Amino acid sequence: MSLRGVVRRAMGSLVHRVWSAVRAVGAVSAASPAGYRFRHIGEGACLAFPMGAVFGEAWIEIGARTLVGERVSISAGMGPGVDLGPASIVRIGENCSIGRGGHIVGHQSIDIGDHVFTGPYVYITDQNHVYDDPETPIGRQWPRNNPVVIGSGSWLGTGVIILPGTRIGRQCVVAGGAVVRGEFPDHSVIAGVPARVVRHHVPGRGWLPPHPDGASGGRTETAPADRVLGAPAAPAG
Is the pTM above the cut of 0.90? Predict the structure, then answer.
């Protein structure tokens, strides 16, 4: 190997070692100084470095052993330095994994249960602008809030968008790229734009497609999530 190759290899190794050290030092946990700004960070929870836009920490709760991937933005309120009242606004449960590049933007209430996994680049918000006046720029019309709930044990695929007012039940799967608004029962497989239930588990009958009247019916499916989504997305990190 040439001298230039040896130097390049040594420098590359040094850069990777330094970056690994920076990531380790920059991660936020309950024991780190940045962790004290949060309303609550549970034992073993970690926000990976580099982080996205994170502010309103005093109104954000993150449960024990939850892992938040790189470049994830978590915010409460319109911007830093605003008093949002006595209650927390963004609550992420225990043992969750939030994929890299995601956005969780709360203004009134976002509740994410325990053991919720998301793929990369998931967007969750409880606020949207209105279109009451067709002559006023939409960005200048006052937004409206509507709480969001994501049930424990659910899995959100890559690129999912959760809109204000959404309530997802326990143990649900949301297919990658779905745009979700509305209420969805426990043990649903949700897909599409706009999202709808494509499979629903009925005790004693298994996985069934939705009936036209909204009830579950039709033939049994044994592995709906695999057929809708394929292999699971990589965990946060």
Answer: no
